[in-house]
Amino acid sequence: MSDEYKDPVVLRHVPSTAIFRDDIFKGKVLFCTGGGSGICFGMVRAIMAHGAHAAIVGRNAERLQKAAAELQQSGAHGARCIATPADVRKEEALREAVRKTVETFGRIDFVICGAAGNFLAPLEGLSSNAFNTVQQIDLMGTYNTMKATLDELKKTHGAYIHITATLHHTGIPWQAPASAAKAAIESLSQGIAVEMGPHGVRSNCIAPGIIKGTEGAERLTPKGAEDYISASIPMGRPGDVDDIANAGVYLFSDAASYITGTRLIVDGGALHGKSAWLPYPDSSLNQKEVASVVLGSKL
Ligand code: COA
Ligand code: NAP
């Protein structure tokens, strides 16, 4: 693999503030489940960098409080962040978190449903409680969050982003519970888009590929697989948290005001890279060598 391909500097993300004005979300309020860590923490940070206040939801109150303090430090235009601890499986706890958010900031414009649980386990090693636990956190958690915030979003003509995945777009071993849950969330999002469009509310999904430096990547990729994974991704690298954050800024911005009911896959082309039969990326970078083993090649 050429060094240029290993380090495709020109293909790296730029901060959203280099593209969008830093005050586009001034006066707006974000409610984000899973915002205390990983991908969703990065999304909240990016949206606050454009001026929005935020409330973040998770079960671990201490970690959440620390994350809220860190996020508040990095916000622009006086953006504030509060911790509203809740388990997304508990509808009343979520409603309380929403009440606290509206009491503090007066409104909710944007909702990210990002809380999730996942682990690698084969079907034969799953109990029904294990399967159900993932459905309860991912799918019912998304449903509960939507139900608790819908009235507020109708008032502000707001928008949802649900964080799904690409697992279920093909089928992948040892990930049946999360695949089933994320597929259902994408369906639910389409239902929200159709029923709530007439109220001015949008609903979309972001489907991340593998995002480095996150709990998900730690849990779901085998140790030592980074080179092999990078080689199968057309963009030549795993995603960064900021790649997903930038997609979130775009989908909440007015630039996406006609986009609803869809999913934005942010995976560096990984889904397509996986389907390569020829050696990859050599079929792009070392074509003569690959042609030598291809019957009838005229290269
Ligand atoms: N393989 C098989 N089953 C597993 C498992 C594994 N690796 N990990 C948990 N389970 C099973 C448990 O054994 C239990 O089933 P049982 O009662 O039949 O034994 C069931 O799942 C629930 O586990 P429990 O630990 O009680 O659930 P929880 O609600 O405390 O935690 C998890 C939920 C398991 C999803 C936990 O990993 C979590 O909190 N994850 C959040 C962070 C995360 O996953 N981040 C990555 C997002 S991609
Ligand atoms: P993460 O840091 O573990 O994020 C999950 C968050 O959800 C945590 O902050 C956790 O906080 C919260 N959470 C879990 N269960 C909860 C519950 N019952 N109630 C309330 N909050 C709960 O993992 P991540 O990798 O950044 O994943 C973020 C999202 O991206 C998830 O939806 C995941 O499926 C998706 N995704 C990740 C990747 C990846 O490569 N990382 C790829 C595709 C999709 P508490 O533990 O404090 O509750």
What is the topology, as strand order, of the major beta sheet? 3-2-1-4-5-6-7
Largest sheet features: 7 strands, parallel
CATH uppermost class = Alpha Beta
Please trace the helix and strand order, writing H or E for each element. HEHEHEHEHEHHEHHHEHHH
* Unreliable residue stretches: 1-5
Strand content: 5-15%
Number of domains: 1
Protein name: 2,4-dienoyl-CoA reductase [(3E)-enoyl-CoA-producing]
Pfam families: adh_short_C2 (PF13561)
GO molecular function: 2,4-dienoyl-CoA reductase (NADPH) activity
EC number: 1.3.1.124
Note down, in words, how this protein is organized:
The chain has 299 residues and is of the alpha/beta class. It has one domain (19-274): Rossmann fold (3-Layer(aba) Sandwich). Helices cover 45% and strands 11% of the residues. The protein has helices at residues 3-6, 38-48, 61-74, 91-105, 128-156, 167-170, 176-196, 215-220, 226-231, 241-252, 270-273, 282-285, 287-291, and strands spanning 29-33, 53-57, 81-83, 110-113, 159-163, 202-208, 263-266. A seven-stranded parallel β-sheet has the order 3-2-1-4-5-6-7, sandwiched between helices. It is globular, with a radius of gyration of 20 Å. Bound molecules: coenzyme A and NADP nicotinamide-adenine-dinucleotide phosphate.
Tags for this model:
299 residues, alpha/beta, Rossmann fold, 7-stranded parallel sheet, 13 helices, 7 strands, 45% helix, 11% strand, disordered N terminus, binds coenzyme A, binds NADP nicotinamide-adenine-dinucleotide phosphate
Provide a concise account of the structure shown.
The chain has 299 residues and is an alpha/beta fold.
